[in-house]
């Protein structure tokens, strides 16, 4: 696949960059190179790679609006690192030069209509290839139909109503035919489901990619799991009876969004999730457990759990990954930005500027498995959380014993420690794997080794995203950072389980069924079930026994389990909870100070604002001018 992706960039540049007539690229007639591209199996395989190349880069601050757009992350203000996604969260999205523009491919985005066009070219020409078996030809067709569905869905999720492109228009097409209009949201979703159903027909896709060169290519579990995800979105409030969009109408005065809630969509989402889970299990996909971490060293159960939770994301091709994007690996640059410096010799190569906001840190449960503000133990009172505390012997796997850190950082659930790193916290890995007591220690107060190396190269919040760094990634010497790269998980089984729990809840399934699937995730994280935890430790013990209460729990469980992976940005939009959740102060510790009391004072870094227009990205102004039939998204 590496050879494919190297070749496809040049191929795309040579063949297609100059054939665009408008915002939806059309195909010229009688281009000899198209026939050449499908002259045999080898050249057709190159074009298959071209179609994969259009996949949005999920592991990129400037390419993926979701990785920073909800402000789970914050960068130092004096550095050059504020990326497109974070600037979206800061309120800098615009129509003249949109950030992460996937409509026409600027501002860090890719032209997904160009990707759809190349998929159509493939489907129109693959029958010309003579040296392909029926099985392989049909497998490739299924892959391309999936990619075409994925690109359409990405556009729907980002822009709302779009124009579906069933086939390419010839370059001599009438101008009026080229100036396509946006279609109703339900019509757009219907086409995505149509493509996914076609991709699943005939059972041509494999359960697994057995050959390493094919890792990252689409399999049957990928398609079915994505179909489940699309079904959940289609059933969610943003797309299901969204009466707030009643004034957003087409040229005939009809709303783009359906105005009547359809409960059957949630039942269909349940069905699709069940089929996806079944096929994933058949393929050997399962939650990454502590016993799955193999090491020659004697380490504690606490550390083993911590590593397992990290590995569910950052271990290459691990058993929980449904679809890893082999074209978009978490490379040394990304991981280095997420990892603190541990000794002075690392000052030169280390960037270390990916700061996770305190808003995320406060989200995780207490060690009792309930929210901070609900735990009945007085040590979690708000007056205590922002004071300091000295780490004792019982804290030795998470803290440097005898050192002081914020009370907020103590006695939290295991995912807090596997996801985040902080001042005086332990970091297992990075070249120290044999002893989980004498590990690296983060020292982040101003002037210390984990603090400012150069302007803009430090965590502006006092927290780092440990879960995004592989345990084997390390500094080899003052000039070399060696990363154990891994494909960004476009979907993993934990996300699918939580989609299923949500669909069960919203379809009025017994609450016990919902709790069971949430508890699978909690159990892997070392927590008791929701009913037991809330009954024994919460000031609101009846919460899991009510549908509204379980909704709060399911949503929070997604926000915790999938934090820093880009789900939160999309989830709060499809739930229509963004106005409540994203109008808030973005907080961190006062990291540019030395004294303990000063460092552990809460600092407001930004006042985040979410407007109704922010549910969807703007269509580039230039496209509206070029095509008068296009209607801009509300508020833009």
From TrEMBL:
From the Swiss-Prot or TrEMBL record, give the protein name: SusD family outer membrane protein
Sorted keywords for this record are: Cell outer membrane, Membrane, Signal
- What is its subcellular localisation? Cell outer membrane
GO CC field: cell outer membrane
Q: Which residues form the signal peptide?
A: 1-22
Q: Where is the RagB/SusD domain?
A: 320-636
Q: Does the keyword Membrane apply?
A: yes
In the record, the note on similarity to other proteins reads: Belongs to the SusD family.
Q: What is its main location?
A: membrane
- Looking at the record, the residues that make up the SusD-like N-terminal domain are 99-199
Coiled-coil stretches noted in the UniProt entry, renumbered to this chain: none
Q: Which Pfam families does this UniProt record tie to the protein?
A: SusD-like_3, SusD_RagB
Question: Which InterPro entries does this entry report, sorted A to Z?
Answer: SusD-like_N, SusD_RagB_dom, TPR-like_helical_dom_sf
Q: Record keywords: Transmembrane helix included?
A: no
Q: What does UniProt list as this organism's lineage?
A: Bacteria, Pseudomonadati, Bacteroidota, Bacteroidia, Bacteroidales
- Native source organism of the sequence: Mucinivorans hirudinis
């Amino acid at each position: 696949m590496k050879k494919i992706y190297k070749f496809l960039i040049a191929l795309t540049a040579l063949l297609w960059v100059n054939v665009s007539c408008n915002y939806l690229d059309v195909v010229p007639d009688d281009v000899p190179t198209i026939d050449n591209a499908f002259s045999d199996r080898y050249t057709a395989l190159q074009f298959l790679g071209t179609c994969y190349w259009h996949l949005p880069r999920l592991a990129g601050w400037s390419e993926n609006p979701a990785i920073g757009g909800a402000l789970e992350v914050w960068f130092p203000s004096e550095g050059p690192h504020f990326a497109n996604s974070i600037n979206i969260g800061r309120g800098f999205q615009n129509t003249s030069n949109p950030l992460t523009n996937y409509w026409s491919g600027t501002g860090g985005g890719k032209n997904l209509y160009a990707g759809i066009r190349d998929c159509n070219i493939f489907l129109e020409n693959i029958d010309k290839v003579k040296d392909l078996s029926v099985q392989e030809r049909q497998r490739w067709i299924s892959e391309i139909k999936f990619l075409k569905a994925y690109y359409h869905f990405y556009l729907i999720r980002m822009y709302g109503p779009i124009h579906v492109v069933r086939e390419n228009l010839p370059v001599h097409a009438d101008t009026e035919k080229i100036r396509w209009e946006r279609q109703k949201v339900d019509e757009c979703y219907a086409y995505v489901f149509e493509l996914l159903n076609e991709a699943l027909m005939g059972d041509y896709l494999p359960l697994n990619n057995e050959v390493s060169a094919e890792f990252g290519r689409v399999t049957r579990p990928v398609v079915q799991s994505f179909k489940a995800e699309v079904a959940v979105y289609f059933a969610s409030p943003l797309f299901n009876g969204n009466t707030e969009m009643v004034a957003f109408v087409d040229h005939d005065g009809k709303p783009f969004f359906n105005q009547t809630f359809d409960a059957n969509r949630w039942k269909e989402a349940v069905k699709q999730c069940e089929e996806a889970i079944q096929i994933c299990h058949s393929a050997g996909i399962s939650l990454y457990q502590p016993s799955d971490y193999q090491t020659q060293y004697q380490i504690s159960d606490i550390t083993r759990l911590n590593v397992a939770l990290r590995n569910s994301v950052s271990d290459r091709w691990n058993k929980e990954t449904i679809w890893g994007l082999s074209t978009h690996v978490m490379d040394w640059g990304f991981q280095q930005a997420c990892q603190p410096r541990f000794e002075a010799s690392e000052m030169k190569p280390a960037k270390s500027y990916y700061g996770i906001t305190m808003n995320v840190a406060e989200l995780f449960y207490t060690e009792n498995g309930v929210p901070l503000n609900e735990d009945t133990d007085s040590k979690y009172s708000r007056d205590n959380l922002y004071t300091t505390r000295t780490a004792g012997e019982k804290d030795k796997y998470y803290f440097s014993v005898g050192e002081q850190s914020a009370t907020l950082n103590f006695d939290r659930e295991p995912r807090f420690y596997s996801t985040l790193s902080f001042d005086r916290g332990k970091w297992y890995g990075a070249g120290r794997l044999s002893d989980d007591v004498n590990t690296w220690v983060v020292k982040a107060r101003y002037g210390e080794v984990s603090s400012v190396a150069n302007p803009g190269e430090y965590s502006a919040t006092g927290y780092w995203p440990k879960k995004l760094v592989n345990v084997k990634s390390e500094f080899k010497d003052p000039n070399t950072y060696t990363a154990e790269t891994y494909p960004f998980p476009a979907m993993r089984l934990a996300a699918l389980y939580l989609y299923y729990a949500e669909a069960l809840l919203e379809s009025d399934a017994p609450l016990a069924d919902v709790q069971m699937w949430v508890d699978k995730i909690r159990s892997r994280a070392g927590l008791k079930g929701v009913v037991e935890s809330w009954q024994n430790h919460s000031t609101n013990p009846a919460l899991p026994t009510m549908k509204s209460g379980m909704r709060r729990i399911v949503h929070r469980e997604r926000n915790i389990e999938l934090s820093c992976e880009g789900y939160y940005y999309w989830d709060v939009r499809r739930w229509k909870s963004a106005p409540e959740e994203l109008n808030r102060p973005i907080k961190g510790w006062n990291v540019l100070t030395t004294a303990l009391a000063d460092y552990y004072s809460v600092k407001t870094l930004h006042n985040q604002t979410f407007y109704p227009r922010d549910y969807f990205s703007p269509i580039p102004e230039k496209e509206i001018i070029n095509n008068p039939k296009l209607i801009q998204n509300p508020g833009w």
